[in-house]
């Protein structure tokens, strides 16, 4: 699914965001990426969906070396990756249904399949009755559910979630986590960067901790391991 071998990322200002990263995420795993602010979590996540490329080393996504992918082929690589952001990134002038359908239109899915599939995933995330609402008419939790529906509508092999509960209250945060857990149980790999200590400590999945660009801990059933 995702492999990194001796990965370094050095930005143009000389900052070493990642140093010698080696990791592998297999099909069906649920993985938390944790660490202090500025530790390299966001850079690590961005490498996983080819928003960034390594300065040195190899990143394989579904067996594809992302550093060798030409820009025009990036959308093809991302077809099997679902991404969920902290700030939702919904198109404000499109309804919930249209935001999710847009992801299928972008990969040129047959029109006859779009309505059926979009309705299916909106039902999964509990938004059947809100499918015609604009983002401005939805709560933060509902907007994140639309974002998740959009991420899974094309049946990705894995989902990258970057602080998906960061803007949500505790109740909505847990609703989102139970939804991601259900998606994972159905077979989709989930990799999630988070600062939410309670969620990590309660759900007890694989935890990869990163500090100053280096993986310092990788354990199954791990804890968050940092003070608030």
UniProtKB/TrEMBL annotation:
Belongs to the ABC transporter superfamily. Residues 2-227 form the ABC transporter domain. InterPro entries: AAA+_ATPase, ABC_transporter-like_ATP-bd, ABC_transporter-like_CS, ABC_transpr_LolD-like, Cell_div_FtsE, P-loop_NTPase. This is Cell division ATP-binding protein FtsE. The lineage of its organism: Bacteria, Bacillati, Bacillota, Bacilli, Bacillales. NCBIfam families: FtsE. Part of the ABC transporter FtsEX involved in cellular division. It comes from Thermoflavimicrobium daqui. It is a peripheral membrane protein. Keywords: ATP-binding, Cell cycle, Cell division, Cell membrane, Membrane, Nucleotide-binding, Transport. Homodimer. Forms a membrane-associated complex with FtsX. GO terms for biological process: cell division. GO terms for cellular component: plasma membrane. It comes from the Bacteria. GO terms for molecular function: ATP binding; ATP hydrolysis activity; transmembrane transporter activity. Gene3D superfamilies: P-loop containing nucleotide triphosphate hydrolases (3.40.50.300).
